[in-house]
UniProtKB/TrEMBL annotation:
Residues 106-203 form the Fe2OG dioxygenase domain. It comes from the Bacteria. InterPro entries: AlkB-like, AlkB-like_sf, ALKBH3, Oxoglu/Fe-dep_dioxygenase_dom. One of its GO terms (biological process) is DNA alkylation repair. This is Alkylated DNA repair dioxygenase AlkB. Gene3D superfamilies: Alpha-ketoglutarate-dependent dioxygenase AlkB-like. The keyword Zinc-finger does not apply. Keywords: Dioxygenase, Oxidoreductase. GO terms for molecular function: dioxygenase activity. The keyword Oxidoreductase applies.
Amino acid sequence: MSDTALPLFGEDEGTGRVGVDDGFATAHRFALDAHSWVEHVPGWLSGAETLFEELLAASGWEQRRRWMYGEHTIEPRLTAEHHDLTTAPPALQEAARALTAHYGVSYDRLWLNHYRDHRDSTGWHGDGASTRRRECIVPVLSLGASRRFLVRPTEGGSSSTFRPLAGDLVVMGGRCQTDWRHCVPKETSPTGPRISVNFAASSQALPG
Ligand SMILES: O=C(O)CCC(=O)C(=O)O
Ligand SMILES: [Fe+2]
C-alpha cells in the first residue's frame, strides 16, 4: 500500500499537461424533463489554462456577421471552426475521441467561441446543426473565465443556470436542441475572456 494520493485524471494537475478524464468520474446528470437532460462534468479536462492560451494564440478566429431584421449585425463573439476534426489542435482531437467513446456519437467537427469579455454573448438558440435526430448529444467544453450557461424551454418559462469553470464539460442531451433553448448571456460585471469548444457530429447534422 502506498500513501501517495493518486491524481484524479491520471496526470499530474500541476504540470499543466492537457488531458481528459476518460471515465467521466465527476459527471452529474440533471433531467430537464422526461426527454431532455444536461450533464455537468466538473474538471473533465486538466491543463485547461495551457489549452486556453494555445487556442487564444491560434489563428483562424473570425468575426462573423449575420443578416438580421434587414441589416447586418456583428456577432458579439469571435468564432473559429474546424469542419474537419483533423485540422483541430491534437488536444481537441483527443477530447473528441473521448466524447465519441463515452457518448457513442461520432464527433467529427467542432467550433470555438471566444468571448472577449463580459459584453460578449450567445443569444437564446437551439443548435440547428444538431437536429437531424430527435435526440442528440451536444458537448460544450469551457476554458478561461467562468460564464453562466442558461437553458430554458422553447415554449418559454424559467431557466436553469449552469456555471461551468475552466475544464468543465456541459453536455446537452435528448431533445435539448428542439424542446429547449440555451444561451450565454452578457454579464453586468467584468469577466476575463472565455473560450467554449462546441463538439458536433455529421450524424446529428441536418443534410445540406
Ligand atoms: O459558449 C457556450 O458555452 C455555448 C455556445 C453555443 O451554444 C453555440 O455556439 O452554439
Ligand atoms: Fe449552442
